[in-house]
Amino acid sequence: MANLNTIQKHVLFVCTGNTCRSPMAAAIFNHFAEQKKINWFASSAGIATETGLLVTKEAIQVLKDYDIHIEDHISHQLDERMLNDTDIVITMTNTQKDLLKIYFPDKKDKIFSLMEYADSDEEIEDPYGQGLKKYQQIAADLMVMIPKIIKRLTT
Asked: Which of 15, 65, 79, 81 is catalytic?
């Protein structure tokens, strides 16, 4: 029988296109999880995307400043299997959270917005097409919010 303490838990970050925000959040989460040696890992998906799109060059660039690498990420369309295989789902906005709860009512108890789970006043806005400065702001916000999520998951 497997030791329950060794079974890794899974958080799924969700945004719209899975080429900016949610891959950044997952990479930052995994960076901190590895540093803290916690038994959680993150992946990401999009509500309205197609599988196989590349992460934006701006997302790659801003995370390199934190020594986090996501250049190998490709987008994934969210599906019910992903929701079944995860312990918690964290969306970038309240609207995304509300949509997922409508589409997957039987999963509603494990779907949260990043804003509520990190106890923040801000949603993570879509930086796509808004330039490097917006991506830098999003990365900085995530670098503050993700440790709060990890603390909540591990205490």
From this structure: 15
